[in-house]
Structures are given as structure tokens and as C-alpha cells.
Write a structure and sequence with these properties.
about 450 residues; alpha/beta; Rossmann fold; 2 domains; 15 helices; globular
């Protein structure tokens, strides 16, 4: 295959390849190094509170020790059902550091959808925000879950503020339905009862499974894309290679911040916001409800982000918001659209207001997720999905798996180190989408 996109690499300063680490490496190695490297730097910001890399290290190690104290064997699945709150990265890192597998769950799932995902993944532990605990309560005993940790929004906001936030949510706004889960453990109790000195660092490799990322189920029953440490590490390095023209090849500047308004259970936000921010030392501004535009604008005013990944819906809402138009956008280096096509009218209004061009990317849960992107050096909105990331090959195939002639339509198919291991416990479904030469058939026409 002729890699015609290499010419674009050369024009925009993107490397043709990236070097993956040794096989005996994992996300745990990378993030534990970064805890030391970034130390007192802000890692996450939520409701005017800051979680530093040092604090993230301590809390995630405690949670890892707690999970290990439950006797969960390496590779056991742990489901997480929470919005964008401090506990999400703490739990995700704790799961990885315990040698377990993270199962991201949409907190808006119905009981039926939650039951399917818990059963399909075989999750033995569930960490859930109390706002949705009543949903799980209705399916107790119908899944393999043995251990439930219930978090409250205010758990990590300090005693005074946390108590006030929880009171308002429970008693004033009445956003937390009554629930009763026998034998559950509160999140802070799990941290407090854990003995971090008992934590045992697991032996992990790039080939070990890190995440089960469930697809939307638009083509049948929802399936878990099995993403390995290699898949996620590779996509981090690939994103770094693409983004380096805006943020530099070295660690990000101390003041660089990412808007995390997309839900962390979604692979786009999980990779491009949470994992990328922790990898590069950028602080994530956690926004649990992007539909609350006044709150979103307030966070943007306070923290002046440098990186804004979002979907067209949010970009469009903001460009039509008068307060957003009055903000100082001078710190914004890059905006990235994903999940759906960005409308040209939205992109034009965004550039007029902020001075930055929205670059679009393309990917799926099965590709960890980023497969293609427009080079950030692009100065004009293209309306296309861009070029393949380094180490990524994109072919347009016909129904028989043959590459079509240039300019003809066919199925977008992707090969690269970010392509999933397969669908969890569904070899037949995996065989339907993987070609003999390891291309993933996306189902999208291009």
C-alpha cells in the first residue's frame, strides 16, 4: 500500500513512526513515572478543588490496595459507573495498579442495559455514584458482582464543601433516589480501610487487557472491545505525535489545561482527556454536566484551557452563547472535534470567536479510539477526518476484502497497534470485523 499521507506528515512536522515501549511495560509504569515527574502539578480540577499528581498517586494506590484486599485475581473486571468526578481517575488508576481490568459504564444506563454489561463482562466489583445506585439495586443478585463501592459527588472535596455538596444534591435538589445495597462499602471508607503498604505491584505487560470498552450496540447487542495496555499506550504515543505541533514534543507547560466536558466513560474523553492529560502533565477541568452552559462558561472563564476536545453539539451551543463570546481565548491552542461530524457553520463561528481552528478526528471504541486526525497545524477547517496517525494504515475495502481504486467508495478499514484485541468472549463477532491481514472493518463507508 502506498502511504500517500506521509507527504502530509512531512509538511506538518508529524513523525512517520513512534517507538512503542518494551513488552514488559504497561500503563502503570508510565503513570507511576509521571506521578514523580509532575508531583505537585494539578492533575484534575473539579468544583474549584484541585487534585495534584501527588494526591492522585496516594489515592489510587490506596484504592488499588483496597481492591487487592478483596482477593480479586489479576484480570478480574471492575465496572465503573460515574460521571466526571475526582473518583473516576482515582478508581481507573487504582484498577490498573491492582492488575485488574476497567469496564467503563454509562451512568445513564437503564437497569436492563447495566445488567447486560455486568453479565457480559463478568465484572466482580462495581464502583457506582450514589445518584444511580437505585438502578443497580433493582438488579442485585442477577449479575456476578460481589463487591459494591458507592461514591458520593462530594467525597473528595474536603469535609466542609463535600458535606454541603452532598446535602444539596440529596435534600435540596433531590437528585439522589433512595437506594439500599446490602454489604456495600462507601468510597471514602474503602480508601481509609486500605493499607497502602500492603499494595503489591502487579506484573503486567503490553499484551494484558486494560479496558473493556462497550460499543453503542447500534448493530446489535452491545459488545465489549477488549483494549490492551499496548492499544492504549500506542494511542497515547500516536496522539502525542500528532498534537506535538501545538504542545511540543516534551511535557506540557504547567499552565496547560484540558476541558473534560465529554463523559469519561466514553473512550474519546477517556483517552484524549484523562489518559493524555496524565501522560503529558496537563490538568483536566472536569465538567460533569456540559448541558449546564452557564457552569461550563464559568469554568472556561476561571481556568482558560489550552485544549478543548468536544462534540459539535457543545461547540455549537457555546458559539451561540453571548458570555462565551466575551471570554479571553488567548490561551486556547487547540480544539478537537470527535464523536460526530462538526458542521462547517459551527467551525467557522468557533474560529471567528476563539481564533482557533477545530480539527476533526476519527475513531471508534475498537481503535482505542483515535485512528485519524487533521494535523493541528491546519489553519482552515477541512470537514474531513484527516490522515492516519503514525503506525496506522487505512484501507478502503470492497465486500470481498479487496482494496478499491483511489476515489472509489468502500468500507473504511484500519490496521495499527491501537486496534483492539477483539470483542470480549465473542470470537465469532471478532472474526466478522477482522481481516486475515489484521485490518479492522469499521462498517463506515469512505
Amino acid at each position: 500500500m502506498e502511504k500517500i499521507w506521509f507527504a502530509e506528515y512531512q509538511k506538518t512536522g508529524i513523525p512517520e513512526t513512534v517507538a512503542l515501549p518494551a513488552e514488559n511495560t504497561s500503563l502503570v509504569d508510565i503513570f507511576e513515572r509521571n506521578f514523580q515527574k509532575f508531583g505537585s502539578r494539578d492533575a484534575f480540577i473539579f468544583m474549584d478543588k484541585v487534585l495534584t499528581f501527588n494526591e492522585l498517586e496516594v489515592a489510587s494506590r490506596k484504592f488499588a490496595a483496597y481492591l487487592q484486599s478483596l482477593g480479586l485475581a489479576k484480570g478480574t473486571r471492575v465496572a465503573v459507573m460515574m460521571p466526571n468526578v475526582f473518583q473516576y481517575p482515582v478508581v481507573a488508576l487504582g484498577v490498573f495498579r491492582a492488575g485488574l481490568v476497567l469496564v467503563n459504564v454509562n451512568p445513564l444506563y437503564t437497569a436492563r442495559e447495566l445488567e447486560h454489561q455486568l453479565n457480559d463482562s463478568g465484572a466482580e466489583a462495581l464502583v457506582i455514584i450514589e445518584n444511580f445506585a437505585s438502578v443497580y439495586q433493582s438488579i442485585i443478585g442477577k449479575t456476578p458482582v460481589k463487591h459494591v463501592v458507592v461514591a458520593s459527588v462530594g467525597d473528595m472535596l474536603g469535609t466542609l464543601k463535600g458535606t454541603l455538596v452532598n446535602f444539596v444534591l440529596r435534600k435540596v435538589r433531590k437528585q439522589i433516589p433512595a437506594w439500599n445495597i446490602p454489604g456495600h462499602t462507601k468510597f471514602n471508607a474503602a480508601l481509609n480501610k486500605a493499607n497502602p503498604s500492603n499494595y503489591k505491584r502487579p506484573s503486567l505487560t503490553l499484551s494484558d487487557t486494560a479496558v473493556l470498552q462497550y460499543t453503542g450496540g447500534t448493530t446489535g447487542v452491545s459488545k465489549g472491545a477488549e483494549l490492551t495496555h499496548r492499544n492504549l499506550v500506542a494511542n497515547l504515543l500516536q496522539c502525542e505525535a500528532i498534537f506535538s505541533s501545538k504542545f511540543g514534543a516534551s511535557d506540557s507547560a504547567k499552565g496547560d489545561r484540558i476541558v473534560c466536558a465529554l463523559p469519561l466513560y466514553h473512550i474519546f474523553a477517556f483517552m484524549v482527556c484523562a489518559l493524555y492529560g496524565m501522560y503529558k502533565g496537563q490538568a483536566n477541568i472536569l465538567i460533569p454536566n456540559p448541558r449546564d452552559l452557564p457552569a461550563v462558561v464559568g469554568e472556561l472563564r476561571k481556568y482558560q484551557p489550552s485544549f478543548f476536545p468536544a462534540v459539535n453539539t457543545l461547540f455549537n451551543a457555546l458559539v451561540n452563547n453571548e458570555e462565551f463570546k466575551q471570554l479571553d481565548h488567548s490561551n486556547l491552542k487547540m480544539a478537537m472535534g470527535g464523536g460526530m461530524a462538526v458542521l462547517p457553520s459551527t467551525a467557522a463561528a468557533w474560529k471567528k470567536i476563539t481564533g482557533t481552528t477545530i480539527i476533526e478526528g476519527y475513531g471508534l471504541s475498537e481503535t482505542s479510539p483515535v485512528a485519524t486526525a487533521n494535523p493541528p497545524a491546519t489553519t482552515e477547517f477541512s470537514g474531513t477526518i484527516g490522515i492516519p496517525l503514525p503506525l496506522t494504515e487505512v484501507a478502503i475495502l470492497d465486500d470481498d476484502g479487496n482494496e478499491v481504486a483511489l476515489g472509489e467508495q468502500g468500507e473504511i478499514s484500519i490496521r495499527g497497534p491501537q486496534v483492539m484485541k477483539g470483542y470480549w468472549n465473542r470470537p465469532d463477532e471478532t472474526a466478522k470485523v477482522m481481516t486475515a491481514d489484521n485490518y479492522f472493518r469499521t462498517g463506515d463507508i469512505g
